[in-house]
Amino acid sequence: MASMDVKLSHGAGAKEMWEFIQKYIVSKVPRNLWKTVNGYGLDVLDDGAVIKIGDNYIVISIDSYTVNPIFFKGGNIGELAVSGTLNDLVMMGAKPIAFMDTIVVEEGFPTKDLEIIIESMVKILREEGIPLIGGDFKVMPKGSIDRVVITGVGIGLASKPIIDVMINENDAIIVTGPIAEHGAVIMAHQLGMENEIKDLQSDTKPLTRTVLPVIEKFKEYIHAARDPTRGGLAATLYEWVLKSDLTIIIDRNKIPIRDSVRYFLDALGIDPLNMASEGIGVLAVEPSIADDIVEELRKVGETHAAIIGRVIKVNNPLLRGKVIAITEVGGKVIVEPRSVNLPRIC
Amino acid sequence: MASMDVKLSHGAGAKEMWEFIQKYIVSKVPRNLWKTVNGYGLDVLDDGAVIKIGDNYIVISIDSYTVNPIFFKGGNIGELAVSGTLNDLVMMGAKPIAFMDTIVVEEGFPTKDLEIIIESMVKILREEGIPLIGGDFKVMPKGSIDRVVITGVGIGLASKPIIDVMINENDAIIVTGPIAEHGAVIMAHQLGMENEIKDLQSDTKPLTRTVLPVIEKFKEYIHAARDPTRGGLAATLYEWVLKSDLTIIIDRNKIPIRDSVRYFLDALGIDPLNMASEGIGVLAVEPSIADDIVEELRKVGETHAAIIGRVIKVNNPLLRGKVIAITEVGGKVIVEPRSVNLPRIC
Lengths: 346, 346
Hints:
Shape of chain A: globular
Strand order of the largest sheet of chain A: 10-12-9-13-11-14-15
Radius of gyration of chain A: 20 Å
Oligomer: homodimer
Number of helices of chain A: 9
């Protein structure tokens, strides 16, 4: 067979990406090696890796940010890099203790833009009380990189990290806020429609002071946690059922979503379930405690937090390992994790 | 004053880069914040950051690799990313325990090239017994990134990390191998002269099994350690004297360098002191033990290891905080850390 080229869908967060990463990266890494670290690594493919050192679990998350445009409604690439990296730690149940980054910038990039980006990164870190402890800075010649790419590394501590292989039958599925806002805003920019979404903003924000305390308080009842970025809510739920062979059923009527986001995406024929968020989390929790968790989330300011579905066990092999949605009119359909044609979303 | 644009020299590893990073990044980070971490961060600007957790020092290094070409004589961008990242840990006196990466690739990049790169990364990690515990994979549309950029993160443990603020008067300066090989090879490729350097290869390699055991054995006598990458030996020594206000005097006749590298760079009028290496270390050590360290380095296979100079205290303010070289004919000149016009060297 002829050699294949990398496609945009291989980086889009959905099924094609997971298959590509499995084939070209994960399958090449010897299992016995990554088990020499006392913790969790590529075997769980979670938001971050975990290393046990003494009595401490160190959690480390890493992501490269290539978002286009670099300044968007509600944020910029620097805020996104810090928030996204910290949120991965939060979703592992870890308290961020330090941040590192690399900035790769194009020759000719205006230093005033660099200053705005760095100052907004530092602003978030200062507000969250997290030190920037190191990094790297590279310049590529004009034409060899489009503006700037930032890589964020978050270092956190957890008494007991949340590893997503653990979802259980009957778990309630909670989202902490309205979905699809970041994806909708980036799509509007890329289509030149940013003036038509006046009241719409990316939800980019760190969850360190809202969702993290709730996760810490209810940790023993939370079986999985994820921030639904690339691939959106559909991709997150799909990863969970694939790992567990259970089924998740969600109710579209219960999923928080702003009207402006819904109308904008409807007009384009795009399902909000496939669109990225950068300031919310999805949790799979003990059903008995789900209402308490939602109440606590609303108390800390996540006023749209809601139970949107649950984990079930089905016998029908066609529905096992799937995500099912109850539609607005009460029918049931299988949700597919689709790659929306939206490069450089994060 | 009009806003400035980022220049290639701002990423080239020498004086312009340090001034740029100081002005646009380090100065913006509040000092009180990074001191909340028990360890060392941007205050030391060393090869990596250090976090003390319990009785353990966790050392974390991060670098983005933008090398052009991505396949070069003696290595490729993947081998470079792993070796360079691990060597930063070695130079902090830390034993690598895990590796993470992000790969940002251009749409249309051949998967066979991606496989070669990933397999050579995994090969080194397997040989060194270091697990790849996590990462990120992004695809950018054609034209928005030239081929591939890889970010490496190394996680290591040290009983007592080597922080480079510690060089002392009379310290001996040791290099563990011949200098300037990586820089010379990349320059040859970029000038289309790679066929004229038949016997020349990049020195890209991990120092985990050669230099690290020696550093561990003699740790209490080693005051500073650095791998002289961007900016070469001159930039490394210059950073040390700037931090200490001492002076370093080196003897050009004692610096190991292959004839092929010397001839190639001489023909171009380039000083090998300004050219990057990717498989050697520079150490500042107690003078009484310097010969023993060199002997041990030669025993483990670093047969060109040599004492090349020493740290002195001078009264002349023009020579304080400078690097002085004894020339081939016995004269003395001040070495300047020059940015060679060589983008994407690592």
